[in-house]
C-alpha cells in the first residue's frame, strides 16, 4: 500500500554532495518525494516556485546560515514547516531557530530513522494546518455568500418600492391617455421621482462596490464641520442641541469627508428625534499624537447589540422604508479608509451612540480622483 506521504514533497537542503545523496536516498526508500538544493538562496527560490510540504535542512549549516534559511522561508510563507538537523547544535541555537519559526531542531547526532520520524510528524503538522486553512476558507466563503444574499435582498427591497410606484403611475397615465384626460403631469412627476430614487440607489451601490476615489479639493476641518452643523441643525424650541467642541485644529482634509460628517450627523439627529429638546449631540475634535479623532456622540435610542456588528454592512438599516438605504455608513467607512483612517462605533440601547473617526494628522496621502455621491445610512 502506498504511503500517504508519497504525494507530499520534501525539499532537502544540504551543501555536502555525499550527505545530500545519502539522505535523499534514505528518504526516497521510505516513499518520500524529494527535491534537493545546495544553498539557502536556492532553497528560497525553489520554495517560491514550487512550495514543498516540508523543508529539511541537513549537513554543514552554521548558525548564521540556518537562521537565515528559517527566517527567509518564513518570510515567503509564514506557515512553512522546517526541520533542521545540524551536527550537535547548542540548545541556545535550537531555541533561536524555534523562535524564528522552525518546526523541529535535532539537537544531537541523528540517525536517518530518527530524521524520517521527525519528517513524518512534520507532514502531519502540515496536514493539520492545511485542514484548518481549508475549514477557514469554507467559513469565509459561506460568510461571503451570506453577505451576497443579504446584499441582493437589500437591493431588491430598496428597488421594489419605487418600482411599484412607477408602474402604478405609468398605468394611470396610460389609462388617462385612453380616456382623453388632459392633465397627467402630476402622475408623470411621481413616476420620475421613483425613477430618480432607483437611479440613486444604483449609483450608491456602484460607489460602494468600486474602489472609493476621493476629490482633490481640500478644506479646513473647522470650516467643514461648522458647515455641516449649520446646514443640518434643526430650529425651534423642540430641536435637539448640537455642540461642536474644539474644531480649531489647523489641518485641512479632503472635501469627501463632508459626506461622512453629513451622514453621521443625520443619523444622530434621527436617533435623538423622539427626545426633542432633551436630545444632545456632541461633536468633538481631539489631537492624539500624530492622529486626529473626530467624535460624534448622541444620547439617542442607541443600537441593539445584535445590530452593532452590521452597521457597516451594505443595505442594513433599522430605519423605516424611505428614510435610508443602508449605504451611508458603508460608503462613509470606505471614504475614511481611503484617507488612511478608521471608523468605529460604540453604543448602548437607550443610552446613545458614539462614532469615532481616527485620521492621520496629515491625510494628504492617497487622496485622488472625483467626488462621491451622498448616501444616507
Write the layout of secondary structure elements.
Layout: E1 9-13, H1 17-29, E2 33-37, H2 40-49, E3 54-57, H3 63-76, E4 82-85, H4 91-100, E5 104-106, H5 112-179, H6 185-209, E6 218-220, H7 221-232, E7 241-245, E8 252-254, H8 257-271, E9 280-288, E10 291-298, H9 305-308, H10 328-338, E11 342-348, E12 352-360
Parallel strand pairs: 1-2, 1-3, 3-4, 4-5, 7-9
Antiparallel strand pairs: 6-8, 9-10, 10-12, 11-12
Helix pairs in contact: 2-3, 3-4, 5-6, 7-8, 8-10
- CATH class of the largest domain, named Alpha Beta
Helix fraction by DSSP (H/I, runs of at least 4): 40-55%
Radius of gyration: 32 Å
Instruction: Please identify the structural class as seen in this structure.
Output: alpha/beta
**Main β-sheet, spatial strand arrangement:** 2-1-3-4-5
What is the overall shape? elongated
- Model regions low in confidence, pLDDT < 50 over at least 5 residues: 1-6, 364-377
**Can you tell me the number of structural domains?**
3
Mean pLDDT: 78
Main sheet specs: 5 strands, parallel
Q: What is the CATH homology-level superfamily of the largest domain?
A: Histidine kinase-like ATPase, C-terminal domain
The name CATH uses for the topology of the largest domain is: Heat Shock Protein 90
How many distinct beta strands? 12
The H-and-E topology, N to C, reads as EHEHEHEHEHHEHEEHEEHHEE
